[in-house]
Amino acid sequence: MTIQATWQPSQDNTLCNLTNGQARWQADLDDTAGGDPKYPSPHDLLDSALAACTVLTLQLYAKRKGYAVDGIHASVSHEETTGHYAMKREVRVTGNLEPKVLEDLLRVANKCPVHKSLSAEIAIDTTISG
């Protein structure tokens, strides 16, 4: 699936409209750059991809294994310096779970598809046209 992002000056704002052909959502600049804080910034979207993938992956795995999970919560933050983007993910799983189950869930969280993508070498091939 390909993500399309568009912006037009006639919008009279800095919102970027996004679609994958089925779902639609929006992003904006950081509020420090003049964006509307009601909308996620591109970095928020990147961090949210990891958080969502973690929760969804653990949800599927816990159901398949029959773990007594009451809820799953993941929070992701980041620190950015020149040439380095460090993400910090905290996962909280509630329920009647033994330490070995939590260890298993941590192992699986570290194998979610977005985690694997972000941990891999990423190459970006960009073209531009007028």
TrEMBL record:
Alphabetical list of InterPro entries matching this protein: KH_dom-like_a/b, OsmC/Ohr_fam, OsmC/Ohrsf
Q: Which Pfam families match?
A: OsmC
- Identify the Gene3D superfamilies for this entry: 3.30.300.20
- What protein name applies here? OsmC-like protein
Species annotation: Cupriavidus pinatubonensis
